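Subgroup meeting minutes
Present: P.N., E.W., G.H.
Scribe: E.W.

1. P.N. recapped why we're keeping a running log of single-chain structure predictions: easier to compare across weeks, and new members can see raw inputs and outputs side by side.
2. G.H. added today's entry (293 aa).
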Amino acid sequence: MTLNFSPLLAAAENALTNAASSTMAGRFTDATGLPVEIGRWIIHILGALLIVVIGAFVAGLFRNLIRRVCTQRKIDVTVARFAANLVHALVMTFVVISALERLGVDTKSFAAIIAAAGLAVGLALQGGLANFAAGVLIIVFRPFKAGDAVLAAGTEGAVEEVQIFSTTLNTPDNKRIIVPNSAIMSATITNYTANPTRRVDIATPIGATQDLAGAHRVLLETANGEPRVLKSPPVTVANVKLLDGGTQVELRAWCKTSDYGDVLNDLLARVPAALAAANIKGIDKTLYYVEKK
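Output recorded in log:
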């Protein structure tokens, strides 16, 4: 007796074909004539792209939401931006993982590979991890905030934003400089605007033959005549050091931090004129040549 499996195979093939035709891949195959596998891959790729697009949109919504909430609660702008960027990065990480799973990639199977390569990845990314840790320290200890004028890692400028791995500074001549967070935390930080007041120091040399007490009096009157100079602490004049042919004196006047640049600029212009009006001169640097006979 001979068994004929052709009808059974034909029936199975028809069932599979009908099932495929009932799906999107089957419809794609029916429309294009391409194999079902290609249709499935195209559908998976489109699904992954859709996940990435929607995920990026949602991540942006979360970032804007966190910034808005922090603004309403009057949380520092630096903290708000850092938290918003961190949440955005975490959401995008989950989005990428979901997109890979949609493509059929078994992310769980990479656990062993990731564990084995963890040391190498850690060594390769140690700079990035150090910058991230330094960014967290900046947020926690807050040596500066957005808008402060600082000198950090040898770079001087106004803080625009503290990001996950770097800090953005704008220089006085409007250049944008990106400084790694680890470089900032490993160096000395000078914050020019952290305190409400600053002292303006102006050093000027007074000749040895000049009236030193009169020079003190002129400097005090000049500084006290500036309305932006604070009365407390009072203006002082100190003899800093002896020079060849005279004495270097220093005018010390306090002002609001926001007025520092203008006060310094105005006093630098007024001090020489006031000393000249009082006929008080600086060090005489005239050279005299004596001829021996």
